Amino acid sequence: MLGPPKAEHRRTGMMSTRMRQLVLMGVATIICYTLISFNSRNFIGHLSRPKDAGTAGLRLTVPQREYPWEEDIPSTTFQWKPCYTRKQCSRLIVPLNYSDPYGEKATIAVIKKPALFPVDSKEYKGPVLLNPGGPGGSGVNFLVGSGDMIGTILGPQFDIISFDPRGVGRSTPRASFFKSDAERALWGEDISFGLVNNSVEGVSRTWARAQIVGKLAEESDTGHLRHINTDQTARDMLTIVEAFGQRKIQYWGFSYGSVLGATFAAMFPDKVHRLIIDGVADSEDYYSNLWSKNLLDTDKALQTFFTGCVAAGPESCAFHAPKASDIAKNLTTILDSLRKQPIPVRTESAYGLLDYARLKGTILRGLYSPYRSFQPLAKGLSDLVAGDPKTLFKLAEPMLPLFECSCDSPKNLREINDAAKAIMCNDGDDVPGDLESAQKFFDTFIKESQWAEVWADGRIGCSGWPKFPKNHFQGPFIANTSHPILLIGNTADPVTPLWAAKKMSRGFNNSVVLTQDSPGHCSLAAPSLCTQQHVRDYFLNGVLPKPGTICSVSTTPFPRKTLDGEEQFPLGQAMTEEERSMFHAIHALSKTYPITAPF
């Protein structure tokens, strides 16, 4: 599941307006000739966006040509236009504040992968709405990259729909605290993967930066910012569904999307036709702005790296050692060494330091998507021991394009990070604004998990946020939905433990938890035909798996290779052609699924 930020380069007093313009132009010119190595707030979110990925003809790529959303005239009904590759796009007008439906408006960017059957066909099953997580993840990017594979899993009877939630990406008004991309890049340049204690100042540095972000957010607010929250987004989803001519929602939400889905189900229990929440967060913990229940299985997920490497042998795991405890010890030795002495690295596309913070973030990122990351991580660690840090450094390079300077403001609306902070801080309870409270929280949290140094910014980062009214929905998550919901949890999910899925299920009558026996964040992080067949059956026929169902996966994160270098995995002899297509789509997603997270 489940970060952002900025600096203001202002000159006051004796400096003239013309001088301020010259200073800013100078800064922009410098940036044009400076490689900004990474925007670290994306280290967990947007994990994938590879330039070349996929199997069996399935590929995940960022579109080379962005759809001109700003030229698409918004409407209260869908006005679909062709966009990207075999997709359709539209901008939908919604109330900025549903408590004032005739007041100011917002626009939501919606994208569709059309069903193969017309709406009046008996085969047509309606739209399935997707949310990729975050908060702040772009549903447009998600559908462009993964929509075809999701469509293969669900079947051709469904329109596959996603959207940029209010405040995000191409939806307006956006959460944007900086006056320029250059300013945003400069502010984020010195962050090292969001480690709260990664400096001599410790927690105080993270706390101080949060005060600046909150101030910039307040200064940029035109009255819209307080309405960028999950409550209003859930209402947007109902508006989208009704604009399709439907009365009830079909929804599949991942990570933070589980909070959004649970919120919708609790607010509109009679509007649920099919609803899956996958990679389930504890919504009560989220709305309390604690972020304290996410890391219960993080070490368990890391253990699968150790044990999987042992089982795979040196042929498939380059960081192999005879025992899992040996691999764990070797990794600890590397982390301790980097804490004392970072390594300077220059690659063909970036440069920077391979330090403790960068490696710690890379490891956590690898735990999100082990079927994509474990083998490269093992190779990077092995190369580092052999004296070559470049392999490991490249794993930590940003998945979003590096910042590029332009003399003109970009016309195309696109994804920026500011919305993540806006949503999580608006949603959650107010966080005390003093440094002492931040330090006390961190000291308690770090005793519970070694990963708290990465995760604590979820709460501390809201300590300077404007004190907007907290009159939006924050629970309770108790409902008798018009159709039972399905919750999916992995046995070793690093940031949404299976415990949370079971807890959240207790509030929704007749709901069922489907367990996937795998590491990774959300079901799509691992290849399980069993899981996705249950997903399809649920959407097509409304059939829930039996309580207690556990689905296995088809291979390991350290698969063996054939003589021609291809990955080995079993294809069932009795598979139909449809099942084979579904199988290949699932494997492709496990290698490419772009999981979105806050920092």
UniProtKB/TrEMBL annotation:
- Pfam families, per database record: Abhydrolase_1, Abhydrolase_4
Q: Which key words are in the record?
A: Hydrolase, Membrane, Transmembrane, Transmembrane helix
* Residue ranges constituting the Peptidase S33 tripeptidyl aminopeptidase-like C-terminal domain according to the UniProt record: 451-551
Q: Which residues form the AB hydrolase-1 domain?
A: 127-313
Task: List the InterPro entries hit by this protein, alphabetically.
Answer: AB_hydrolase_1, AB_hydrolase_fold, Pept_S33_TAP-like_C, Serine_prot/Carboxylest_S33
UniProt-recorded Gene Ontology molecular function terms = hydrolase activity
Transmembrane segments in this chain: where? 21-38
Query: What does the sequence similarity comment in the record state about its family?
Result: Belongs to the peptidase S33 family.
Q: What name goes with this protein? A: TAP-like protein-domain-containing protein
